[in-house]
Write a structure and sequence with these properties.
Blueprint: H1 2-15, H2 22-25, H3 29-45, H4 49-63, E1 66-67, E2 72-73, E3 78-79, E4 85-86, E5 91-92, E6 97-98, E7 103-105, E8 120-121, E9 126-127, E10 132-134, E11 138-139, E12 144-145, E13 150-151, E14 160-162, E15 167-169, H5 173-176, H6 193-220, H7 227-236
Parallel strand pairs: 1-4, 2-5, 3-6, 4-7, 5-8, 6-9, 7-10, 8-11, 9-12, 10-13, 12-14
Antiparallel strand pairs: 14-15
């Protein structure tokens, strides 16, 4: 157990350069949230729902993170900072990182239909601060969800998603090959397909405007007849 704890702390240290020691990481609210959830989830599986909820409420009061006891969470899960909400049927793989104010929420809570209502995050996913992943969607392994993005559809493996609604971006290969991208978004310039389309349209409009101006100048400039035409008109006279 001690070896597993040290391995978990070291995995947190690899994702967060701020702590100076392993002991400092033990004070992180995200670490305590996971510890409380392990207890609450065990009670939930034993059908001791009230006790599971009680542990959940204590954890939310102490850490600011609200993780439903029914959520299934893999190894080396880390919430950086806090104020995160994770729903009952959410499933989280290994080495997943969530930043502050993330919501793994369900859809249509008023219809009374049970079942899978919350997202599934596969191994190595990073979700940036303020992002919302809603509904029973699949977020592929090693995918990155940028800050404040709203994900309502499945995310391909290794994709980087930004915007509302979230759409996939083209990322420089150097950033893509990194093992860990803080906040799920590369800090270098990214290639947004929608932005590229707008830039291409802007170039076409500028070219058309230039051509139109040239035609207007040609039309406004008086055209003098050439010498051959003048001699022909004189001979006819």
């Amino acid at each position: 157990m001690l070896r597993n704890l040290i391995g978990y702390i070291d995995s947190v240290k690899a994702r967060d350069p701020a702590p100076r020691s392993r002991a400092e990481i033990l004070l992180y609210p995200g670490v305590w949230s996971l510890a409380f959830h392990r207890v609450a989830h065990g009670l939930y599986r034993a059908r001791l729902f009230f006790l599971a909820r009680l542990v959940n409420h204590i954890a939310r009061f102490l850490t600011g993170n609200d993780i439903h006891p029914g959520a299934r969470i893999g190894k080396r899960f880390f919430i950086d900072h806090g104020f995160t909400v994770i729903g009952e049927t959410a499933e989280i793989g290994d080495d997943v990182t969530l930043y502050q104010n993330v919501t793994l929420g369900g859809t249509d809570p008023a219809n009374g239909i049970a079942g899978k209502r919350h997202p599934t995050l596969h191994d190595g996913v990073i979700v940036g601060s303020g992002a919302q992943v809603l509904g029973p969607v699949q977020v592929g392994a090693r995918a990155r969800v940028g800050a404040n993005a709203v994900v309502t559809k499945n995310v391909p493996e290794g994709a980087t998603m930004v915007g509302i609604p979230a759409r996939q971006m083209l990322v420089d290969v150097t950033a893509y090959q990194r093992d860990f991208v803080p906040y799920g978004t590369p800090c270098s310039d990214c290639f947004d397909p929608e932005k590229q389309k707008l830039e291409m349209l802007q170039c076409e409009v500028e070219q058309l405007q230039k051509r139109l101006a040239e035609l207007m100048v040609e039309r406004q400039t008086p055209r003098l007849p050439d010498a051959d035409t003048l001699f022909e008109d004189r001979d006819r006279a």
